[in-house]
Amino acid sequence: MTGLETTPLWKPSGSPQSENCIENGHVILRSVPLPSNGGFSPGTNGSGGGGGNVIMKCTLYLLKSVNFRRCVAALVLVTVFLIFYYTSVVNSPFPGFIHRDTRPSPLVNCRMLNGKVALDGSTAPDHRSEARLRIDPKVLVFVETTYSRLGRDIAELLVYNRIKYKIEVAGKSLPVLTNLDKGRYGVIVFENYDKYLHMDKWNRELLDKYCREYSVGIVGFISASEETLVGAQLRGFPIYIHTNLRLRDASLNGLSPILRLTRAGDTAWGSLPGSDWAIFQHNHSTYEPLAWAQRNTLDYPTDGVVQPPLATVVQDHGKFDGIQRVLFGAGLRFWLHRLLFLDALSYLSHGQLSLSLDRMILVDIDDIFVGERGTRLKPDDVQALIASQKRIAGLVPGFKFNLGFSGKYFHHGNHDENLGDDMLLRNVDHFNWFSHMWNHQQPHLYDNLTNLIADMMLNKDFARDRGIPVDSGYSVSPHHSGVYPAHELLYMAWKKVWGIKVTSTEEYPHLRPARLRRGFIHRNIMVLPRQTCGLFTHTMYIDRYPGGREKLDESIQGGELFQTIVYNPINIFMTHMSNYGSDRLALYTFESVIKFLQCWTNLKLTSAPPLQLGETYFKLHPDEVDPVWGNPCDDVRHIKIWSRNKSCESLPRFLVIGPQKTGTTALYTFLSMHPSIASNLPNPDTFEEIQFFNGNNYYRGLDWYMNFFPVQNNGSAKYMFEKSATYFDGDFVPKRAHALLPKAKIIMILISPAKRAYSWYEHIKAHGDLIANNYSFYQVITAGDSAPRALKDLRNRCLNPGKYAQHMERWLAYYAAQQLHIIDGEQLKSNPVEVMMELQRFLKITPTFDYSSHLRYDAKKGFYCQVMGETRNKCLGKSKGRQYPPMDERSQKMLQRLPQTE
Fold first, then answer.
1. In terms of C-beta density within 10 A (0-12 exposed, 13-18 middle, 19 or more buried), how is residue 831 classed?
2. How far apart (Å, rounded) are the C-alpha atoms in residues 142 and 166?
3. Which of 527, 517, 505, 511 is nearest to 569 (CA)?
4. Residue 198: half-sphere exposure toward Cβ, Cα within 13 Å
5. Is 249 in a helix, a strand, or coil?
6. What region, left, alpha or beta, does residue 623 occupy, with left being phi > 0 and alpha being psi -120 to 50 degrees?
7. Beta strands, E only, 401-508
8. What is the mean pLDDT of the chain?
C-alpha cells in the first residue's frame, strides 16, 4: 500500500518450505513447494508450510510400514514437530523462550528519495500575494447539519492546525461577510457542494460577489448519496461527475500551483477508503486535475488494458466565472485529501491561511536502564540505535535520541544486557540525556520535599559518577506523575536539584488524539505537549502489535503518527527502552515515518535540545503560556497521579460570582448559616474571597486553591461553595471555572447597573480612595481616553461590571442556562427569606433550611440580620448598609443613555 514495500510475514506462493517424513526409521527433511494460495493450504488453520501435506504423506508412508511401533513413534515425532513449529512461528505464548526473527526493516520505496530530490521544503511555492491583506485568516464552513460527519472532520482538522473558523448551517441567511473594507473570511468551504449550487438567488449572488471582490476562493466536497450519477453536470458549470465508485492507486499533479505542504512524491498504492468516490470530467480550460486515481480492478476488470487516470480532485482557475475553487470527489477519510485540503486553504486565501513548513522532532527514550531481564538492550541493540540515529540525522539535522535514566536500575539485567548498559555509557556523547527519579518512584507519592530532593540527588550523583551530562534543564516524571495535575513539591525539587526549565507530558489536557494536546507554563517551568507514536512499554514484537503490523504501518503511512507531525510544529515523542530491543520497533517506526513524510510532504524536519524546543514552542503559541487547570476527578488517569492528600469531594459545587456592590456579602452570610452548606476558608489577603480564577492566585496552582476547601473530618457531605464578586466580569474566569468545575452551579446577583456603579464609587470614596475624593461621580463616568490612567481605571471599575449582557454571554458560552441562577439584589435586601428558599430549590439542597426563623429585619441597620436571640441580631459590619447621598440628576441621565449598562 501507498508505495511502500513491506517484509512479508510468511513466504510467498511458490517458495520452498521444509517438511518432515520418515524413511528407513529416520526423520528426513524434504523441500516441497507451498500451495498457490499464499502459503496457507486448506485444513491447516493458517499455520502455513504445507503442514497438511506433511501429515498426509507421512501417514501414507507409515501405513505401508510393517513395524507398527515405528509408525507410532514417527507420528509422535511429526506431531511434536508441528506443535513446536506452530508455537514458535505462529502463536508462541513464550516470546522470551521461543521467538522467531521478525525484526522489521525501516521502509519506504519512494521515487523522490531514490532520486535524491531536495527534501528541505525549498521547492514549496509561496502562496502569498497582496490580496491576502484584504481578508482575515478565517474559514467560513457551511455544513448540512451541526452533527454531520464531514462537517465535524473539517472542523477538527482546522482545530488541529489552529485555524480560526465559523460554522454555519447551509440554507440559512449568510452571516456578515465584511468588516469595513475587509473580508471576514479567507476561504468559503461547503461540506456539500450541492448546497452551494442550489442556494437561493439572493444569497448566491451575494456570496459570489463577495468572492470576486475580495478574491476569496471556495472549497467544495461532492457529498455521497444513494443515487449513482453517471456524467451528471454540476449545475451551471462545464464539469461532470460520476459517483459511487471504488478507486485505488492515488497520485498527484506535480505541476499544480496548489501543492505546498504536499509533495507529489509517488503513487499511494492500494484501495482508497470508501465506495462513494466521485470523479470529474470537464470540457473547459478553467479546470485542472489536482489528484488522480484508478478504478479498482477487483470491481472493474480491465483484462490487462491500461486505463486512463480519473480526476478525483480538481482546481477551478476561475476563468469561467471569476471565482477560484477546489473540488474534492470524496471527504477527508483519505489522508492525502487532508493534506490537499490544507494546501487548498493556503492557495485560495493567497497565503493568509498558509501553515509553516518547519517541524521539529525530539524522541525521548524513557527508562533507559529500567526493565525486566529479557527486555533490555544488548550491545547489538545499542549499535543499531547509534546507526539508526546517524541515518535519521541525515534526514533530520541535529537529531539525537534523548535518553532518560533512573540510576538505581543500572546493571539489573542479564550478562548481555549489562554489557548493553556499559556500551551506552561508553557512547554517552552520542546521545542527549535527561533525568527520571532515582528509583523510578512517582513524585506525587512524596509528601515531604526533603525526601523528594534526596531521591533526585541520588540520580544526580549517579550521573556525575558515570559521566552523564546533568545540565540539559529537562526532566520527565515517571508515569507523568506530578506534572499535571501539578504536584507543587515536584516543581520545587526540580528547580532546586536539576535547575529544570522544561518538561513534557501527554496528560495536559488528557486528550485524544495526540495531535490535540497543548502546553503551559507553571512556576517558570515550560510544560510541552508530549506525543505518543503508538508504541508503549510492552510493545516489543511486530507480531504482537495491537492490530498487527498493518495497523502500525497505517499509522506511519498517512495515519495518526504521520498526521501528528504534520499538524504540530513541535513534536516530542514518548518511547521506552523496550521499544529498542527485541524487534526494535521504535527504530522501524521513526525511520519509516520520517521517510514517508519526506516522500509526501515539503516539511522541513529539524531537531534541537528540549530547552530550545520549549522556547520555540511558546513563541509560536504565546496564548498557551497560561495554564487551564482541569478537574482531576473527571479523569481516572489523573486521579491515579494526583496528590494523595487531595479529595474530589472538597471542590466547590457552586460559585457566587458577583458583581460587586450588588449584595454578594449578604448572600454569603445567609448561605453560611445553612447547616448543609460550607464555604472556603478565608484568604488572609482578601478576607472571605479567594479570588482564584481572575488574578495572579490562579498561577499558584490547584493545590493552593484546594487548601481552602479542607475535607470534612466528620464524614458529612457539605455543599461547598466559593464567593468572589470579581468573577462576574473577569475575561478568563468562565473558561477557567468551567475547566475545573464543569458541573458547578453559578449564582449571580444583579441590581440596576447605574445604582451599582454609583454604589461602587461611594464605597471606595468612603475607604479613602484619592481619585474618588478628588473627582465627582459625573467626572468619573464621563472621563475620556485622554484622562489620567487612575481616573480611567476608576471609570472602568464603575461601568464595566454593569455591562450585564456582555458578561452573561461569556458565561453562557461555557455553562448551560440551567446551571445559572440570577438573584434580584433588591429582592434579596427586602425579602431574603423568599430568595433563599428559591435558591435552595435551585441547588436541590435537602433538608430545606427555614430562614424565616433565622433572619429578622433590623430597623436600625435597615436590612435583615441573623437572629441570635429574642432581642439580639448579628448584622454585617459598619461598612454595609451605609446611606449615601442621592445620585445627581446629570449622572442619572448620563447613565441612562449608556446602552451597555442595561
1. middle
2. 9
3. 517
4. 8
5. strand
6. alpha
7. 402-405, 432-435, 502-505
8. 87
Place of cell 527520571: 436
> Could you tell me the pTM of the whole model?
0.82
Cell numbers standing for residue 501: 526549565
For residue 902 the three cell numbers come to: 442595561
Distance of CA 402 to CAs 167, 609, 613, 809, Å?
Answer: 42, 9, 13, 47
The separation between CA 606 and the C-alpha centre of its own chain, rounded to angstroms, equals 22
Closest CA to 196 of 332, 344, 326: 326
* Angstrom distance (rounded) from CA 433 to CA 469: 7
Q: How big is the chain, counted in residues? A: 902
**pLDDT, tens digit, 9 for 90 and up, residues 576-616:** 999 999 999 999 999 999 999 999 999 999 999 999 999 99
**761 beta partners:** none
Q: Is 778 in contact with 870 (CB distance < 8 Å)?
A: no
Residue 100 has pLDDT above 60, yes or no: no
Q: How far, in Å, CA of 32 to CA of 57, rounded? A: 12
Which of 314, 313, 321 is closest to 272 using CA atoms? 313
% pLDDT > 90, the chain: 71
Short-list 163, 103, 113, 166, CA closest to 137: 163
Handedness of CA 490, 493, 497, 500 (dihedral sign): positive
How many helices and strands, by DSSP H and E, does the chain display?
27, 32
Q: Kindly tell me if the per-residue pLDDT of 90 is higher than 60.
A: no
Give the residue numbers marked as catalytic.
Answer: 661
Cis amide linkage into residue 106, ω under 30° from 0: no
C-alpha separations of 631 from 20, 636, 712, 744, 816 in Å:
64, 11, 19, 12, 18
The C-alpha atoms of residue 343 and residue 354 are separated, in whole angstroms, by 8
The one-letter amino acid code at 68 reads F
Distance CA 691, CA 829 (A): 24
CA pair distance 690, 74, nearest whole angstrom: 84
